[in-house]
User: Fold this.
Amino acid sequence: MIKVRIQFLVVLLFVLVSSDVFAQGYICAVGGGSENYNSWSDAPYKWIVEKSDSGKIIILSYSTDNTNWLPTYFLSLGASQAYNKAITSQANANLQANYDELKTASAIFIRGGDQVRYINYWKGTKTEQAIVELYNEGKVIAGTSAGAMVLGGYDFSARFGSITSKSALKNPFSNGIDLENNFINLQTNLLFDTHFIERGRFGRLFSMILKLKHTANVDLLGVGIDDATALCIEPDGIATVMGSGAVSFFYFDSLTAYFASTIDSEYGVARLKCDQLTANWKFNIPARTIHYMPPSARVAERQHQTRTVNNSILSNSATSFTNLLNSLYTLVGSTSGYKSVILTHPGYVSKLDSLLNYLNNALPQYDLISVSSATINDSAIAHKVSEASMVMILGDSTSRLEVLTDSLNLLGATLKYKIQNHPYNSFLFFDKAVKLQGEYYVDNTDTDALASYRGKMTLKKGLGVVKSSIIQTNPLEDDDYIENRVSALLWGMMRNNASFGLYSNPYENYFYNYLTDGVGSIGYNILISIDATQTTHVDSSTFRASSSIGPRQVVAMNNLRYNITNSSGIYYSFPMRVLAIYPNVENEGTEIPNTLSIANYPNPFNGSTKISFSLPHDGEVKIYLYDILGKSREVVNSQFYEQGVHEVQLELNSNIKTFTSGVYFVRIELTSKSRPTITKSAKLIYLK
Assistant:
C-alpha cells in the first residue's frame, strides 16, 4: 500500500512539474502565404478549428483593412463563428470590453503585417493578457507571418526595420537584431521566423540564436517556417509540419562549438544542428528530437569522398579576381614555365578585358579558349588543357559550359582525366561557373523565379573537383531568385546523396587547398557549409502548385550540421567535418592569459605597418609572418627585449618581396630560461 501511494505521488509530482515545463494550449504558427480551398492550408487551418472544438475564432489585426475571406474560410472548415477584429492602439488594447470579448474565443488567429506594431500596441495590455490566459486555459493561439513571429518566447521585433541574412551574417551582434522576450511568450526559449526558404532567412535566424547564446547564454530553438507551411504544436510540445514547404529547427547541442574572437564582429560556429522537416514529420520541442518520421521518409546513403586537386578557387568577385590569381600563384610557387588556360563561352570574352590586361603583364603563357561545338573536339585545344598547370573556367551561363562535364567529347574527357589523375594542378572558377566545381549542380535557379516552387529545377553533372559536393551561388542576394538558390543546395544534396554543401556568395571568394584538405574564405567573407554525413533519412514535398511540372523542390533532412564563419582565419576541414583554425597560426605552448599581447596598426595596411607587443617579463622575442596556409614567409624580428611595450616595423612594399594582397598572420614567441615559452597570434590584412 505504501509503495502504491509513493508511485501515485511520483506521478502527481510529474504532472505538476510537466504543467510548468510543457505548454498549456495549442499553437499553430504559419509561415505566410495565401490560403486557399482544397490546397496546402486546409490541413493546418482545419487543425485550428478541430482543436478549438469548432468554436468561435477571432481573427486579430492592428489594421481595419481586412477582407472577410479568412473568416469565411474558417466557417467553411467547421468553425461555429469567425470574424475579424482590429485592435489598433495601446488604448484600444487596454479596453475591458475587448478583453471580455477575446475571452469568449476558442481560438485567436493573428494576421500578418509588422510585428513591431503588435509589440508596441498590445504589449502589457489587456489584449496580451487575454491571449496568454486563453492559451493557459487550453485554447488555440495561431498566427501567420508576423502574427506567428510573436508567438515564441523570443521575437524578432523589427524595431529597427527588417534585416536580411546577408546583413545579419556580417555582424550577428549588431543592434539591428533586436529580440523581444517580454511579449505573449507562449513557448520559452523558442523563436519563430517565417517566409523562411522563400526569403532566404536561414542566415538571420542563425544570427539571432547566436547573438543570444553568445551575449546572454540563452539557448534558443530557432524555428524557420516556410511560406505555405505551418507548424502545429500540441500541449505536450509535439509539433507536426503541415503544408507545402519545410520547417527548419536550428539549435546548439553537445557537438556545437563556438569560436570566440578578439574582434567583436567576428565569429565561427561549428556543427550547428539543424533538422529540416516536411509535411507529416513531427518534432519534440522540449526534447529537441524528431518524434516521428512518416512512411514517405527514405534511408539516406551518404558519400564521403572529398579528395580532389591541389588547389581550387571559387570567385564571385570581379573586383578581387586578379588578387586571387596572385594568391594562387603564390601557393603554387614561381610562375616561370607556368602555363594557364582560360575556358569560357561566347559572349563572355568581352567581359574579360581587365583580366586579360593583367595576364598579359603577369603571365604571358596562357591560352584563351571559347567553348563551343567547334572547339570541344579540337585535339590541339585538348592538348593545351592537358599541359596547363592552372585551368580557369569562367562564365555567367552554366548551360553554355555544361559540355565541359561530358567526357564523350575530347575537351570534357581531357578535363576529367586531369582532375582524376593530376591532383597537383590548380583550378579557378568564376561567376556562375563556380557551380561546376561540385560533383553535381542544380540548374535553372536564375531563370524562373518560381522554379523551386513549381518543380522546375534540374540536377546536372559537374566536374567533381571536390567529390560528393554541391555548390550553390548567390543565396544571400535579396532578389526574385533567392527561394530557388536557398532550396537548391539541400535539394541537390538530397538528390545526389552528397555529404557536403557550400553556399558561394557574391563578392566573396573561397578556396580548396590540398594541404589543409578543406575549404576556406579569402578575406573577411562569409563561409556557409553544410555537412550531411550524419543524415540518416530524407524526404521531399509532394505539393504541386498550379502551372507546376513537378512537386515543390523542398526537402527534409535530419541531423544536418551547419558551419558558419566570417573569419578568414577559420576554414572547414573535410577530414574533421568541422570548422578549424588554420595550422601553425594559433597559440602554441602554455599561454598565460592577458599577459602577452600583439597587434598591428594600421590594419588593413598598404606597404608597411607597426607591430606593437607587450611582454610580461624579459626574454628572447621572435616574430614570424605566416601566409593563410600557415607557411612561414619570414622572420620579422628576433632579439632580446625587456618587460614592457615595444614596436617593430613590418615592410611589405619592397620590390624584392613577392607578397600579394590577402590575409597573413603574425605570431610572437617569448622565451626565457626560467619560464615556459608563450605565444600569441594576430591577423593582418595586406592591401597591395
User: Anything to note?
Assistant: The two ends are 85 Å apart (CA to CA). The first helix runs from residue 2 to 21. The chain has three domains: 23-295, 311-581, 597-686. DSSP finds 16 helices and 40 strands in the chain.
